[in-house]
């Protein structure tokens, strides 16, 4: 389409006078261009089938104490860790003042299911997957840029700005959890 | 595109700095703003701008669709459906692209027939015309490749039938067929390469369009009276006169376009293309898209052997019907350009146009359908094919020698015999 | 302006030449056009009808036909049957879908899942249906049509007739007869005989169809409509409802597309008028 700015260039004898017709046509033209451009950009957003896959159910009964599994939720990995009592105690003993992103362990798990730690498995720095049961804090260590997380998945050291993200989830029963 | 003559000096120092190094603004100004255009062009001339607009629409919507499409035989059909069902605004974008192909061809036929009537192919515009025929051929190829992508029954069998045309070539036909298909039959490799080519060709079309416009700007536009521009009085600057007129025409063109895209997106298509491709079942009636029908009718009309066998002969007629357009500037040697001043030509021209529509209609019918008395589509379409070729090979050359044209106006601005030369709006 | 009108009139006629024409055989009935709520540029789906049609589909068609592009979540979408999210969740949970990531490979369906197919493969479907393959119903309503001779198809471009599919499906469901009617012939003029295991249908192209008459009067007890609408429990009604539903399955965004179309057309008409005035003003002094 021709550009609207063309309309401003007018060589009638009245050039320079603000002409209602040209202003109105330009305005309508701009609305038209906007109405065409927006859908062409908006189509890149997640489509209906992607949005519909927002929740995943997972059966916890197969995960032994001290083990963890990685499952997929919304296309990203999610850690499901069955923590030992030692890990829970360690996480709860940390004073808030030691934390870069202060948050209690209780706030990161569901009461009554403290052994289950469920987190999006992406380092909050630049999105690599941290390695479990490693690092100085017995938690996770990100091999990309050296961020270290404790047994509650909280950031303790390195460039990552925040704790590992806990996705929305709920227990459908003692052994089945629905993420999302 | 006579950029070299431009002495454009922008007032803004930054633009001046750019212009000194790359005179792109002066180029744009001389081609799109100052370009002297005959002032008597009628609305048939707006179809050039409409075509440029349609090429843009198809490229933009096509790029968007390619973001969601999967060129794999088992997934292609469902991915097109997923575009329509799940992608945000996908139903409309897909409909604009598929009905856009029809609108594009509709506009190109008007553009071609305008050129045929007003003698726009005559010297010094032969190369302009030839580039146009090349664009038309590229458009046909692109449309064909695109039609295969949804991988419905019509897509699949169109691919099978059209690639089979190459098998008519003696000796090397079969190897060429396998080369084109990437297999012994149309299958996933065919779909993959057609997708690649469908994405590539529009950009080649855009490049040839650039040459087409370049070749237009050297001699300047032809015009409805066919008398060359004689003085500045005969012209107006392209901008704002023709930019705004073309813009208006484009907006009007969008009205039927939107009508089809929003209210009847499938009415120009075939229901069988909503059945996923099945190499084991041929649909009962194979019909190409409407814009290929005249040429399909020509291909099919040759059902007899004459020295060569009918299949090869049909393919030659099919190819020849388009290739003959390349030679048109040298077949019609009449000095007068515009059909307006050629009393006999007019009759043959309109008969040619009607004949073309008849061929289109024949292309959509089954060959054994009765048309007049005992004569079937297969019979009468032979007459139409004959006239199609006679028009170029016999009628135009003879008219050039024997026709007595009406007196021409002296120039675009000067009326002839007291009548105004041509309405300008 | 007159010229422009002429151009488009000529164009529409030109485009119309593409419509195919069909031959007629003795004993064969052409499908009759029906009135549909979604016909024409102003037409929209009737939510109650789609809900009823869904019930027919679910209780009758779906036992043999797949609809692999239909997702449970679609049933809650606006412009469709528009069941509530809760209803759809509950409905989905009554079905099982395959999922290789869970133990046993099967789990309850979620709204995001697609309608489970009654047969795993085409071969299974043929085995269970006497060699006939019940076609997938996802876009069936657009894969079928009735054909208009001249000049019908010219008018179709102006009436935006796109209901050939539902017209055909409705007609087919009402075209069964137990006995082959007298005087029916094949396309070559020989007397028609019904093959073993087939049923006579006057609308189906070959007249012999593998699908037994699927509907009978009173067969389905419709769930009560939210607004209390009641309809007769007849084959005619069932077939209309299920045809409308299949049209929605094939074209779920029809209502949306049309309402967008009105806005676009209104815009274009306004813009065209303004551009015409702009062009006229510019050209006024050129003569």
Automatic annotation (TrEMBL), chain B:
Binds 2 heme groups non-covalently. Heme b b566 binds at residues 111, 212. The chain crosses the membrane at residues 43-67, 88-112, 127-149, 156-177, 197-216, 247-264, 312-331, 347-364, 384-402. It is a multi-pass membrane protein. Pfam families: Cytochrom_B_C, Cytochrome_B. Residues 228-410 form the Cytochrome b/b6 C-terminal region profile domain. Residues 14-225 form the Cytochrome b/b6 N-terminal region profile domain. Heme b b562 binds at residues 97, 198. GO terms for cellular component: respiratory chain complex III. Keywords: Electron transport, Heme, Iron, Membrane, Metal-binding, Respiratory chain, Transmembrane, Transmembrane helix, Transport. InterPro entries: Cyt_b/b6_C, Cyt_b/b6_C_sf, Cyt_b/b6_N, Cytb/b6-like_sf, Cytochrome_b, Cytochrome_b_C_euk/bac, Cytochrome_b_N_euk/bac, Di-haem_cyt_TM. Its cofactor is heme b; heme. One of its GO terms (biological process) is respiratory electron transport chain. The main subunits of complex b-c1 are: cytochrome b, cytochrome c1 and the Rieske protein. This is Cytochrome b.
From TrEMBL, chain C:
The keyword Transmembrane helix applies. One of its GO terms (cellular component) is membrane. The chain crosses the membrane at residues 260-278. Residues 1-23 form the signal peptide. Binds 1 heme c group covalently per subunit. It is found in: Membrane. Heme c binds at residues 61, 64-65, 211. Gene3D superfamilies: Cytochrome c-like domain, Cytochrome c1, transmembrane anchor, C-terminal. Keywords: Heme, Iron, Membrane, Metal-binding, Signal, Transmembrane, Transmembrane helix. One of its GO terms (molecular function) is metal ion binding. This is Cytochrome c1. Residues 48-177 form the Cytochrome c domain. The keyword Metal-binding applies. It comes from the Bacteria. It holds the Pfam family Cytochrom_C1. InterPro entries: Cyt_c-like_dom, Cyt_c-like_dom_sf, Cyt_c1. It comes from Devosia nanyangense. PANTHER family: CYTOCHROME C1, CYTOCHROME C1, HEME PROTEIN, MITOCHONDRIAL.
């Amino acid at each position: 389409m021709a550009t609207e700015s063309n309309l401003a260039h007018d060589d009638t004898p009245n050039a320079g006078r603000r002409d209602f017709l040209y202003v109105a046509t330009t305005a309508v033209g701009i609305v038209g261009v906007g109405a065409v451009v927006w859908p062409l950009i908006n189509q890149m957003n997640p489509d209906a089938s992607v949005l519909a896959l927002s929740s995943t159910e997972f059966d916890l009964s197969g995960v032994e104490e001290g083990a963890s599994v990685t499952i997929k939720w919304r296309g990203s990995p999610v850690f499901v860790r069955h923590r030992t009592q030692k890990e829970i105690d360690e996480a709860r003993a940390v004073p808030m003042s030691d934390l870069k992103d202060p948050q209690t362990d209780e706030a990161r798990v569901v009461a009554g299911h403290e052994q289950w730690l469920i987190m999006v498995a992406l380092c909050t720095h630049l999105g690599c997957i941290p390695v479990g049961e490693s690092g100085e804090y017995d938690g996770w260590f990100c091999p990309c840029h050296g961020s270290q997380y404790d047994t509650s998945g909280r950031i303790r050291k390195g460039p990552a700005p925040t704790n590992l993200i806990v996705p929305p989830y709920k227990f459908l029963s003692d052994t089945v959890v629905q993420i999302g | 595109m006579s950029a070299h003559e431009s002495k454009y000096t922008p007032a803004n120092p930054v633009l001046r700095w750019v212009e000194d190094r790359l005179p792109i603004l002066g180029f744009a100004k001389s081609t799109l703003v100052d370009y002297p255009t005959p002032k008597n062009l009628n609305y048939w001339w707006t179809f050039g701008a409409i075509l440029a607009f349609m090429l843009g629409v198809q490229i933009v919507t096509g790029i968007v669709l390619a973001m969601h499409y999967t060129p794999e035989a088992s997934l292609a059909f469902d991915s097109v459906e997923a575009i329509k069902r799940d992608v945000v605004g996908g139903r409309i974008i897909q409909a604009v692209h598929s009905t856009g192909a029809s609108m594009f061809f509709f506009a190109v036929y008007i553009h071609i027939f305008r050129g045929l009537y007003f003698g726009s192919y005559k010297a010094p515009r032969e190369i302009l015309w030839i580039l146009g025929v090349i664009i038309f051929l590229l458009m046909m190829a692109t449309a064909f490749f695109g039609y295969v992508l949804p991988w419905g029954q019509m897509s699949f069998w169109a691919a099978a039938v059209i690639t089979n045309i190459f098998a008519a070539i003696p000796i090397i036909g079969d190897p060429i067929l396998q080369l084109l298909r990437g297999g012994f039959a149309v299958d996933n490799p065919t779909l993959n390469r057609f997708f690649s080519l469908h994405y590539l060709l529009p950009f080649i079309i855009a490049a040839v369009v650039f040459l087409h416009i370049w070749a237009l700007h050297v001699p300047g536009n032809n015009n409805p009276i066919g008398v060359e521009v004689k003085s500045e009085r005969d012209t107006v600057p392209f901008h704002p006169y023709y930019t705004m007129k073309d813009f208006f025409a484009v907006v009007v063109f969008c009205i039927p376009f939107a009508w089809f895209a929003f209210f009847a997106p499938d009415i120009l298509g075939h229901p069988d293309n909503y059945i996923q491709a099945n190499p084991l079942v041929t649909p009962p009636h194979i019909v190409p898209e409407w814009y290929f029908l005249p040429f399909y009718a020509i291909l099919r009309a040759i059902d007899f052997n004459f020295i060569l066998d009918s299949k090869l002969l049909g393919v030659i007629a099919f190819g020849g019907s388009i290739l003959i357009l390349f030679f048109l500037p040298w077949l019609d040697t009449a000095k007068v350009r515009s059909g307006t001043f050629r009393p006999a030509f007019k009759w043959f021209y309109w008969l040619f146009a009607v004949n073309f529509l008849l061929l289109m209609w024949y292309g959509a019918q089954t060959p054994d359908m009765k048309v007049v008395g005992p004569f079937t589509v297969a019979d009468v379409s032979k007459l139409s094919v004959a006239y199609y070729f006679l028009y170029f090979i016999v009628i135009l050359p003879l008219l050039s020698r024997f026709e007595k044209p009406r007196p021409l106006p002296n120039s675009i601005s000067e009326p002839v015999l007291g009548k105004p030369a041509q309405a300008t709006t | 302006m007159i010229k422009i009108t002429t151009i488009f009139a000529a164009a529409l006629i030109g485009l119309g030449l593409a419509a195919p024409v069909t031959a007629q055989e003795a004993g064969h009935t052409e499908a009759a056009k029906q009135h549909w709520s979604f016909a024409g540029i102003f037409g929209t789906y009737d939510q109650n009808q789609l809900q009823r049609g869904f019930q027919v589909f679910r209780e009758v068609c779906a036992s043999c036909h797949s609809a692999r592009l239909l997702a449970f979540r679609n049933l809650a979408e606006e412009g469709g049957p528009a069941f509530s999210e809760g209803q759809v969740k509950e409905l989905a949970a009554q079905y099982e879908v395959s999922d290789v990531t869970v133990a046993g490979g099967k789990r309850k369906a979620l709204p995001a899942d697609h309608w489970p197919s009654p047969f795993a493969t085409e071969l299974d479907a043929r085995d269970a249906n006497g060699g006939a393959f019940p076609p997938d119903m996802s876009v069936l309503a657009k894969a079928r049509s009735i054909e208009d001779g001249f000049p019908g198809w010219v008018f179709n471009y102006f009436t935006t007739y796109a209901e050939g599919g539902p017209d055909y499906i409705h007609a087919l469901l009402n075209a069964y007869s137990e006995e082959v009617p007298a005087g029916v012939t094949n396309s070559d003029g020989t007397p028609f005989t019904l093959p073993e295991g087939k049923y006579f249908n006057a609308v189906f192209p070959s007249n012999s169809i593998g699908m037994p008459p699927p509907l009978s009067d009173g067969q389905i007890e419709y769930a009560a409509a939210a607004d209390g609408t009641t309809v007769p429990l007849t084959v005619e009604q069932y077939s209309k409802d299920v045809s409308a539903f299949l049209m929605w399955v094939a074209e779920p965004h029809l209502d949306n597309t049309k309402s967008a179309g009105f806005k676009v057309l209104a815009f274009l008409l306004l813009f065209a008028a303004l551009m015409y005035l702009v062009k006229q003003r510019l050209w006024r002094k050129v003569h």
